[in-house]
Specification:
The complex is a heterodimer. Chain A is mainly alpha-helical. Chain A contains 12 helices and 2 strands. Classes of the chains: A mainly alpha, B mainly alpha.
């Protein structure tokens, strides 16, 4: 309950961030969507012990956030709030893989510990990239980009409408739950009460869908949702795409940390 | 399913499967041509979020749960529209709620959407419920479909994790962990879905009737599953193996980097996969990660790198710290530039 409340407040704040005029917001939405998906794929392509090689990839979400004037602290907080799931997934690793990989300051670091850290780093990077994408683009623009990239029109309309009514229906659910909590002596409803509440919500949602449809018909809806489209891509978009491509290729093909270490220690990588 | 657990090959294959299935479903919804469905799907997609906010106590366990909503959407909208609605819910969750992730989106659409909408609903729910189900039949149908859908989904998660080889959880114990838990979740999901449908049927009988009627189309609605699974297979064989062959260790090996702990971490799944891959390979001289690594361990260590014995070297840590320092420096500079160029108010 409180988790969804917090998430919704966060959702609204992300869209507000995207509404500002920043260099990152002016970039073509399609370029950002494709870049983010490619970024996530490259992050995932590293093996379970390749923690250090993920380091150069931190540049992409951080640079896009900096270009979009997205404050870092709320982002970090959001990632930390979502991390229990990743922690739960990774928590068993240290117990399953006890082979020592290296020794650091007298402590043996096992493969499991390294894998644990790698899973968390991958989680933070991919979630960070997704959050920055929305905070610099806005959800409607992401939908429009998806449509122009060839996603089925029904699916895009579905996405846009789901997002639009998310706030309305979540508010309604929050009011319903609050109403119950004020009248009920002990916390959570049982299954029977909960399904009655959900059923009520559903009946109201269905009625709302009918009203929404009538309103859309009044405005000439013909089965197709028209989303705002951005202008043609320009030089900045090309530079952005090339920059991201260069970063991803270099991070993938070259072991940047080891090369840098070689330069620093004079051993040669 | 989460990004952190999925390899690009598995994530990509399931993305292809999910995209193919969504395309078929979208075409069928468009051909159906009922524009009333567009706002209805949108509002019901948002409703799935809303009903996840209503937590209820699960009897006998002391824990609480909420309705997943996949089965409910299938009953209300039919499989095609339900899959699209669920896909949009999952994408919004991946982008805003940090559930799942972009790469794992394909896996989640298959686990939570495709299995419920195209297998559990037409093959389990509809035959049991029939055209105009009685109260008891409806509950039985929901219960069975909820259990089947969640068992398939849980097994999908295990298979995908195992095939990705990121987590070192053994396959058997992961199955033994996931399936019983999801049996319980499936029972709760089924009972709660049935109860909600019954509430709606009491309040708005005409809606429940339209939801239940749609005719037995179980064979026709299997087509998206076939399309999706075929795409997954083709993709795994084609692009997937390209991805896999461009995996770090193949590349690293090619550039003759001495590997430290990585060698120790190989084996198990990757060996099995490599053997299977070689047995059914489209490209016979395809080089898989584990094979590369084992050859690597046999080869003498490179003289340029000082004695990389497993268990002694911290190589990479210093470099990673240096890389991060450089990244921080670049970002700091960028932010400083932005602050200067920002209009003063």
């Amino acid at each position: 309950m409180s988790r969804i409340d917090a998430a919704l407040a966060h959702l609204g704040s992300l869209d507000e961030l995207a509404a500002r005029d920043t260099p990152a917001a002016r970039l073509d939405a399609r370029a950002k969507v494709v870049a983010t998906v490619a970024f996530v794929a490259v992050v995932a392509s590293f093996g379970r012990l390749e923690l250090f090689r993920l380091a150069p990839l931190a540049l992409y979400p951080l640079a896009l956030a900096a270009l979009g004037d997205v404050p870092f602290r709320p982002l970090a907080l959001r990632i930390a709030l979502a991390s229990p799931f990743a922690l739960g997934v990774a928590a068993l690793e240290p117990f399953l893989d006890r082979v020592t990989v290296f020794v650091l300051g007298g402590h043996a670091v096992t493969g499991g510990v390294l894998a644990f850290a790698t899973i968390l780093a991958k989680f933070a990077l991919s979630l960070g990239a997704a959050l920055v994408l929305v905070a610099t683009t806005g959800f409607d623009a992401v939908c429009a980009a998806l449509e122009r990239l060839g996603a089925p029109r029904v699916l895009v309309a579905q996405l846009a409408l789901t997002y639009r009514y998310l706030f309305v229906l979540a508010d309604e659910a929050a009011r319903t739950v609050r109403g119950y909590e004020l009248r009920a002596p002990a916390g959570r409803p049982d299954l029977r009460t909960a399904t009655a509440l959900i059923g009520q919500l559903l009946v109201r949602a269905l009625a709302r869908a009918e009203r929404v449809h009538a309103a859309m018909r009044c405005r000439g809806f013909d089965g197709r949702l028209r989303l705002r489209r951005s202008a043609r891509p320009g030089g900045h978009d090309l530079a952005f795409a090339l920059g991201v491509a260069a970063l991803l290729v270099v991070a993938r093909a070259v072991d940047v940390p080891r090369v840098l270490e070689g330069v620093l220690t004079g051993r040669g990588g | 399913m989460s990004d952190a657990l999925v390899s690009p090959a598995v994530g990509g294959a399931l993305w292809a499967a999910a995209a193919g299935t969504c395309a078929v479903a979208a075409r069928r919804v468009e051909r159906h041509g009922d524009e009333r469905l567009v706002p209805l799907m949108g509002v019901l997609g948002a409703f799935v979020f809303a009903c996840q906010m209503v937590n209820f106590a699960i009897p006998g366990t002391g824990s609480s749960g909420h309705l997943g909503g996949g089965l409910l959407l299938s009953i209300l909208l039919g499989p095609d529209a339900a899959l699209l609605a669920l896909t949009s819910v999952l994408l919004v969750q991946a982008l805003f709620f940090a559930d799942g992730g972009l790469l794992a989106l394909g896996c989640n659409v298959v686990n939570l959407g495709l299995f419920t909408s195209y297998l559990a609903y037409p093959l389990v729910f509809r035959p049991i419920a029939g055209a105009a189900p009685s109260r008891r039949r409806l509950i039985a149908a929901c219960l069975a479909a909820g259990v089947v859908g969640l068992q398939l989904g849980a097994f999908g998660v295990v298979l995908e994790t195992w095939a990705s080889g990121i987590s070192s959880l053994p396959f058997r114990s992961f199955v033994m962990l996931m399936l019983p838990i999801h049996l319980a979740i499936g029972v709760v999901e089924g009972v709660a879905t049935a109860a909600v449908v019954l509430v709606v049927r009491r309040a708005r009988p005409e809606l429940a009737a339209c939801a239940a009627g749609g005719g037995p189309r179980s064979l026709r609605s299997l087509r998206p599953v076939v399309v999706g699974l075929a795409l997954a297979a083709v993709f795994t064989g084609g692009v997937g193996s390209w991805f896999a062959s461009s995996r770090p260790d193949g590349l690293e090996w090619a550039t003759a980097h001495a590997a430290q702990g990585e060698v120790a971490a190989q084996g198990g799944l990757h060996d099995v996969l490599a053997r299977a891959q070689r047995a059914v390979a489209l490209l016979p001289d395809y080089d898989f990660r584990a094979a590369a690594a084992s050859e690597e361990s046999a080869a003498p260590p490179r003289p340029a790198w000082p004695a990389p014995r497993v268990g002694t070297s911290v190589s990479g840590l210093l470099g990673a710290a240096l890389t991060l320092a450089l990244v921080a420096l670049a970002i700091g500079g960028l932010r400083l530039l932005r602050r200067k160029s920002r209009p003063t108010r």
